[in-house]
């Protein structure tokens, strides 16, 4: 019940004073309540728990995290590449 | 799928694993307190990939597993009443009570329904004015906002036939209990990301300060979990203990303000018994006094419950990280998801169910 996965809001409407949304999870759609995300808009990716949207996924933060992962090990690789010619020279 | 496939990338996983291997000088004991994360770790074999660097102890992060037996027996007794429609998340139906479970009650004529959202239960109350609709509100801080809104909606629609059996639990007090145990071995925590989506991160500051334990707010995909491990081990190796948010795409420091306001309105903090663990002070939510008219516990008198835990089930030790599921003598033999002895074998988030689903055919390491 805690595994909230991100889905895309495709439609928003009002049900007797409560904001509701249709959320698309890669083809499967669910009706969800937007009461806790007053700023959410169509096109936003959101995390749903027990039929309630709890957060809009921060796209910039996602990119920053992935960029950090891509940089991991790059420094070591660069060091290795820089060290390689020097080692060859030392052997000579 | 967006925000899923990127966080499953094998090349980036390799980079994270290499980084962890290069940093760790010893094997560290980490605990996650979220059944979703437990399943992700076992399903993707992260514990096997990290076998030399990490011992994972799975914390009490499965909400239906820790729901106290007395509360389940109470739900079973209420569900058996002819005027009642008892609504619950699907996970709860097979969880064994002292003598029965909700599936069995339903087989004997009880009206037990699975709902996806607590609002569905409110809808059922509206559609069945001559019946009493009871929502069994279990779960951590992630599901409580949904239950709170169900209470508010029922009151707004003046539904006198809706009530809730509330057994919500809170994660930080459980982490405090783990750290306070005399035989605690946990060196750092991966904090459950979506709990923090609701609650924010500040509630962990006192734990970090008092116990000098790194706490890394972590997501659920394989790369998220590897990053949580990487940041925890980075701290441990340099002797730091800090609160870090490794899941910023879904967690803001302040949490979800609208949900927090609603939780404060509808619920009040109480002591709560955790199945297999015992009472943890200030570790639960019950309905606030203003909402007592919606409390199924007082609306339905079910006196004379005899509560008795199975003698063959070791789920208490599993929930406290003292026993690995495959080491339990009943695992996979007397106890299976179809015939569970305890809740940890039932739920989609239970640790025993995770090992049964993904590991029972693999020889132990």
TrEMBL record, chain A:
It comes from the Bacteria. GO terms for biological process: protein maturation. InterPro entries: Hydgase_assmbl_chp_CS, Hydrogenase_HupF/HypC. Gene3D superfamilies: 2.30.30.140. Coiled coil: none annotated. GO terms for molecular function: carbon dioxide binding; iron ion binding. Transmembrane segments: none annotated. NCBIfam families: hypC_hupF (TIGR00074). Belongs to the HupF/HypC family. PANTHER family: HYDROGENASE MATURATION FACTOR HYBG. This is Hydrogenase expression/formation protein HupF/HypC.
UniProtKB/TrEMBL annotation, chain B:
InterPro entries: Hyd_form_HypD, HypD_1, HypD_2_sf. It comes from the Bacteria. Keywords: Iron, Metal-binding. One of its GO terms (molecular function) is iron ion binding. GO terms for biological process: protein maturation. Pfam families: HypD (PF01924). PANTHER family: HYDROGENASE MATURATION FACTOR HYPD, HYDROGENASE PROTEIN ASSEMBLY PROTEIN HYPD. Belongs to the HypD family. This is Protein required for maturation of hydrogenases. It comes from Frankia canadensis.
């Amino acid at each position: 019940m805690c595994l909230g996965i991100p889905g895309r809001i495709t439609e928003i409407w009002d049900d007797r004073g409560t904001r509701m949304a249709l959320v698309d999870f890669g083809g499967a759609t669910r009706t969800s309540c937007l009461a806790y995300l007053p700023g959410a808009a169509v096109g936003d990716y959101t995390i749903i728990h027990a039929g309630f949207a709890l957060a809009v996924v921060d796209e910039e933060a996602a990119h920053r995290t992935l960029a950090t992962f891509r940089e991991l090990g790059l420094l070591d690789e660069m060091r290795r590449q820089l060290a390689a010619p020097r080692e060859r020279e030392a052997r000579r | 799928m967006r925000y899923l496939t990127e966080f499953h990338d094998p090349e980036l996983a390799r980079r994270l694993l290499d980084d962890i291997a290069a940093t760790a000088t010893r094997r560290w004991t980490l605990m996650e307190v979220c059944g979703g994360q437990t399943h992700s770790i076992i399903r993707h074999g992260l514990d096997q990939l990290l076998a030399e660097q990490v011992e994972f102890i799975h914390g009490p992060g499965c909400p239906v597993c820790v729901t106290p037996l007395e509360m389940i027996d109470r739900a079973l007794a209420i569900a058996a009443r002819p005027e009642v429609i008892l609504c619950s998340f699907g996970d709860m139906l097979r969880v064994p009570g002292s003598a029965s479970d909700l599936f069995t009650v339903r087989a004997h004529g009880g009206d037990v329904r699975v709902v996806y959202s607590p609002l569905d239960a409110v809808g059922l109350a509206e559609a069945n004015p001559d019946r009493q609709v009871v929502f069994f509100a279990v779960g951590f801080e992630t599901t409580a906002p949904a239950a709170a809104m169900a209470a508010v909606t029922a009151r707004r629609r003046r539904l006198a036939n809706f009530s809730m059996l509330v057994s919500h639990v809170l994660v930080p007090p459980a982490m405090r209990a783990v750290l306070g145990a005399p035989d605690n071995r946990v060196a750092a925590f991966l904090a459950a990301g979506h709990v923090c989506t609701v609650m924010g991160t500040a509630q962990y500051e006192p734990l970090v300060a008092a116990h000098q334990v790194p706490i890394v707010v972590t997501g659920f995909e394989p790369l998220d979990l590897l990053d949580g491990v990487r940041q925890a081990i980075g701290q441990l190796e340099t002797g730091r203990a800090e609160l870090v948010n490794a899941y910023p795409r879904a967690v803001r420091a302040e949490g979800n303000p609208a949900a927090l306001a609603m939780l404060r309105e509808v619920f009040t903090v109480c002591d709560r018994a955790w199945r297999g663990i015992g009472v943890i002070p200030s570790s639960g939510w019950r309905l606030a006094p203003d909402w007592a008219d919606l409390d199924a516990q007082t609306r339905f008198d079910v006196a004379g419950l005899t509560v008795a835990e199975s003698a063959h089930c070791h789920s208490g030790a599993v929930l406290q990280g003292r026993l690995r599921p495959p080491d339990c003598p009943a695992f996979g033999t007397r106890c299976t998801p179809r015939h569970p002895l305890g809740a940890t074998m039932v739920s989609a988030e239970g640790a025993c169910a995770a090992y049964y689903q993904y590991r029972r055919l693999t020889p132990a390491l």
